[in-house]
Amino acid sequence: MNEQIQTVVIGAGVVGLAIARKLAMSGREVIILEAEDAIGTATSARNSEVIHAGIYYPKDSLKARFCVAGNRALYQYCNERAIPHKRLGKLIVATSQDEVASLAGIQERAAANGAEALRSLSKSEISELEPNLSVAGALFSPSTGIIDSHSLMLSYQGEAEDHGAMIAFMSPVEGGSIGEGRITLSVGGDAAMQLDCLELVNSAGLGAQGIANRLQGLSPVTVPPLHFAKGNYFTLAGKTPFNHLIYPVPVAGGLGTHSTLDMGGQTKFGPDVEWSEQIDYSVDPHRGDGFYAAIRRYWPDLPDNSLQPGYVGIRPKLAGPEGGKYDSDFLIQGPSDHRIKGLVNLYGIESPGLTSSLAIADYVLEQLEQG
Ligand SMILES: Cc1cc2nc3c(=O)[nH]c(=O)nc-3n(C[C@H](O)[C@H](O)[C@H](O)COP(=O)(O)OP(=O)(O)OC[C@H]3O[C@@H](n4cnc5c(N)ncnc54)[C@H](O)[C@@H]3O)c2cc1C
Are 233 and 226 a contacting pair, CB within 8 Å? Predict the structure, then answer.
């Protein structure tokens, strides 16, 4: 006899935990299956911890919708529960006249997405806000901030558990099959079991495609490819030069080598974009040369030998460097996409997934209730 449960969420990252919380609060009986021995050890522990405003994404994309809604929901959530965060604001900086020309487009895109308005800064305002910057122009985004993402995840976990959800750690989902009105999962690990559920949310981040490809009864043509885009970070030794987040005008595949602060006041630069064939969390120290060059475009006084290799996060991209069938949006497939009642697969949940987590959770609940 298989174990039985109403709803399974695979993955205890920030998005899986937000979904589990939402589903448990809707009255469902929820179990979270997590391959590792703790919450948030994968991409959710390897990001910039920035609360994004929703500026750059194409209008009406899921990223634009969820980031703008998620930004507001997250600030409210953090305020109500005393989750450490700071609404620092960010400067988007242009380092050439060509880039200055592109700032107007960024401002329009943000307005079209419904993000809080970006303000153009004068030269004197820039030097007053950030005396160490040397740039040709800048926009100010007031609703960008930083967050202690681990505290956020603990809060999601706690609220999910308060509503009856359970987490099974060291429980890797190895595969499954879609049956009549239920989905059966093969769960490995020490307490290996077969688990029947009525609803399955696959929120396994870098593992989502692997699980979907091993779900018998799900058409493999619905499963997008997975490409790994490493984002390397370097940390700054010594005093932080900036009071706000500093972002250059975006580059292909990422947001440019930006400067962020964490809640402990540490300045870090990155992430860059390095395509990889496998999951590899090592930072190649030689990439530091590119960081010095990129940062000195807006902070010429960056001292020699002040950067140290930091850490790596890996973006689960649906298209590689050559492009492909999928664009760069989140891909969330519910029953209307794959015709399987009770199943939601989340793919490509790269940035701004942390910011969007509460909005994604709302959307997943809608998908299940419609299906
Ligand atoms: C470099 C980088 C910088 C980023 N910066 C930001 C930012 O500043 N702001 C922002 O909003 N977003 C940012 N993001 C995006 C954000 O980090 C992610 O969208 C978010 O962490 C994804 O959470 P998740 O729960 O989907 O995935 P994950 O955190 O990867 O969690 C997935 C979980 O599934 C588990 N799992 C995998 N396979 C299995 C299996 N077979 N069985 C059971 N469990 C399994 C894993 O162990 C893991 O715990 C960034 C991302 C990257 C890569």
Answer: no
Instruction: Calculate how far, in angstroms, residue 261's C-alpha sits from the geometric centre of ligand 1.
Output: 20
- Model pLDDT for residues 21-48, shown as the tens digit of each residue: 999 999 999 999 999 999 999 999 999 9
CATH number for the 3-46+150-225+324-370 domain, one of 3.30.565.10, 3.30.300.180, 3.50.50.60, 3.40.980.10? 3.50.50.60
Q: Which residue's CA is minimally distant from atom 3 of ligand 1?
A: 47
What the block records as the tokens of 35 is 């391959």
Averaged pLDDT, 74-101: 96
Among 312, 313, 352, smallest CA distance to 330 is for 352
Cis preceding linkage at 224, omega within 30: no
CATH 3.50.50.60 range(s) for the chain read 3-46+150-225+324-370
The top-level CATH class assigned to 90-142+227-317 is alpha beta
Among the residue ranges 14-28, 114-128, 245-259, 335-349, the one predicted with the least confidence is: 245-259
Q: For a pLDDT cut of 70, what percent of the chain falls above it? A: 99
**Structure-token match 């959710």, residue found:** 44
178 C-alpha to center of ligand 1: Å?
Answer: 26
